[in-house]
């Protein structure tokens, strides 16, 4: 961190560094040694999420853009998925020494201390966040996003997986993002839900664990979650068909 690590550009135009690859490789070695009956899938080296075996899903640096620009808002994100259900989620911010971990039925802990999402009566009181507004602009979600910005108390940007963990810890009320891959969202489902919040796509369903390009809403209070889904139902227009 904060050293001249070169960043390559992947086909999806996102950066990747040797730190991403070596962190995932180290985690894979550890998991394969300790849990040989489990599968491992990662952002950088692939793997099947749909499997009869328990599978560990790894995003070694969620927020590589923040990492390469010296901002301590990236994180390691890991999920354990069993029978298609994310049952454990971990978000670790190594620079700040922050770790959130949630296991199904055991609540969310931040550095060992139990934490929960806060109550929020409605959108007008809600502090919302997203990693970047670019994920909404020039897409079918733009009208929804612009309206949401006007309805909430205020919007903040940046954070990647850490933004969800902070929301689940009671520092904000809502995270809305788009174009997420399984490695982006699977670790966050237990983090949010075990803090008392809700994590769904914009139709109100749990995202398919193997889906990509997913838009999600994570809220600490079901009243805020319901208001966002209602807004999306009225404003999200279907994507235009491809040109002939």
Q: Main beta sheet, described? A: 7 strands, mixed
Shape: globular
Based on the structure, what is the oligomeric state of the protein chains?
single chain
* Termini separation: 47 Å
Strand order of the main beta sheet, please?
Answer: 3-4-5-6-7-8-9
Taken in chain order, the helices and strands follow as EEHEEHEEEEEEHEHEHHEEH
Low-confidence stretches: none
Written description of the protein model:
- Helix content is 26%, strand content 30%.
- By secondary structure, it is α+β, with helices and mostly antiparallel strands.
- Strand 8 and strand 9 (113-115) form a beta hairpin.
- The longest helix has 17 residues, at 18-34.
- The model has no long low-confidence stretch (mean pLDDT 93).
Structural key phrases:
single chain; 244 residues; alpha+beta; seven-stranded mixed beta sheet; globular
What's the helix and strand layout?
Blueprint: E1 7-9, E2 15-17, H1 18-34, E3 39-42, E4 55-62, H2 64-68, E5 75-82, E6 85-93, E7 98-103, E8 108-110, E9 113-115, E10 127-130, H3 142-151, E11 154-157, H4 161-168, E12 174-180, H5 182-185, H6 188-193, E13 198-201, E14 214-219, H7 222-235
Parallel strand pairs: 3-4, 10-11, 10-12
Antiparallel strand pairs: 1-2, 4-5, 5-6, 6-7, 7-8, 8-9, 12-14, 13-14
Helix pairs in contact: 3-7
Question: Could you write a compact summary of the structure shown?
Answer:
This protein has 244 residues and is an alpha+beta fold. 26% of the residues lie in helices and 30% in strands.
